Amino acid sequence: MAPSTYWTAKRRPLSARVLRDTQMMPLLLVLWQANYSVYGSRKLQIAARRAGHGIGRDHLARLMRQLGIRGVKRTKKVNTARTGPAATRPGDLVALRVNVGFGLLVLGWWSCYQESSGLVVGGVGESVCGSSEGL
Asked: How many domains does the chain have?
């Protein structure tokens, strides 16, 4: 890069977008924290408009990424408490004893392309009486 190009870019004043972003970022952070830090870009845009700050949703999403803030998702909670391999486990309170030879016996499967009571009755009959092959 030529030195004149570098110094020309260095002396150039800040763009209107950068100036607006520096004004909006603290306002958005205050709005996000005032709403329990759970709002995403869509709801935060509505809150900003309600507070008198006109800003687009995509512009707001870009600023949120720059600030490192995001909305809360309604998904399954992640369990971070994991038991270590050296931890002691509770004892067997039921005293369950499994006969491995008999416990692994699978009597059979039925499948059908249509819903019918024959499928259910056949499956129950096979599980109670054993399969028709004489298991």
From this structure: 2
Give dist(CA 117, CA 120) in Å, integer. Answer: 5
Q: Per the domain annotation, does 113 fall within a domain?
A: yes
Per the domain annotation, does 108 fall within a domain?
yes
Task: State pLDDT tens for residues 67-104.
Answer: 999 998 888 776 777 777 787 877 777 776 666 555 44
| Alpha-carbon gap, residue 117 to 74, rounded angstroms | 39
Question: Can you give the residue range of the structural domain that contains 35?
Answer: 14-67
pTM given for the model: 0.52
Q: Give the position of tokens 């509770």.
A: 90
